Amino acid sequence: MLKGTLITSRLLLKEAIHEECSKLKSVLHTWTDKQLVEGSGYESEEFEKWISEGDLPPIENACKENYRLKSIYLKEESKLIGYTGLYMGYPAKDCLWIGILVIDSGYRKNGYAQEIISRISDDAGANGFSKLGIAVYLNNWRALRFWTKAGFDRVTGISCDGEYEEEKFATIKLQKEL
Ligand SMILES: CC(C)(COP(=O)(O)OP(=O)(O)OC[C@H]1O[C@@H](n2cnc3c(N)ncnc32)[C@H](O)[C@@H]1OP(=O)(O)O)[C@@H](O)C(=O)NCCC(=O)NCCS
User: Fold this and answer.
1) pTM over cut 0.85
2) Is the C-beta atom of 136 inside 6 A of ligand 1?
3) From CA 45, how far away is CA 31, in angstroms rounded?
4) Scanning 22, 45, 114, 166, which has the fewest C-beta atoms within 10 Å of its C-beta?
5) Pocket test for ligand 1, best of 28, 103, 117 (most atoms within 8 A of CB)
6) Dist. CA 63 → ligand 1 center (Å)
7) Is the CB of 119 under 6 A from ligand 1?
């Protein structure tokens, strides 16, 4: 599932390839508050590695066959405006995990991310998955608002270690039932 190119009304989600890495990096660099909201910069996004080896979750038997990195194109202009990384079967077998979703800042607030989640939800549901999952940094208010509006309304965990400190960053895990 989720193989090849997925089509929505305005977008194409294509399997990312090495030749796109510099464009993917350009999209990433429009995420100018990443360090502020996540506490880590652009070095955490390893497109070359993700394309060759996948970005695998910390579970036994994680494998690249269950991972997809999709480049998001505007259908009309063939312009690369974002990317998403997906893992089929994390944290449980029936859950499709959205590891990352980024839209170029110049193209946000057009409903593109919502269109992508809707397409992925349909595909996941049709292929026997019963939920979608994500983890989002608690300081990432824009994304929190997006995910909760998109139906990720079940809290399944909050990561935080030890006592609160200003330079520590926590994530919340959310699920959307399909
Ligand atoms: C989170 C993110 C992916 C959302 O992408 P997006 O394409 O802007 O999302 P949408 O357009 O579907 O929705 C965003 C907002 O635009 C609004 N919107 C949608 N279509 C609109 C339109 N035609 N006109 C005006 N506003 C619109 C939505 O209602 C939503 O409003 P809200 O912020 O009040 O909730 C994007 O902000 C992003 O890439 N952020 C940086 C990376 C990031 O944080 N990723 C998530 C990591 S977990």
Assistant:
1) yes
2) yes
3) 12
4) 166
5) 103
6) 30
7) no
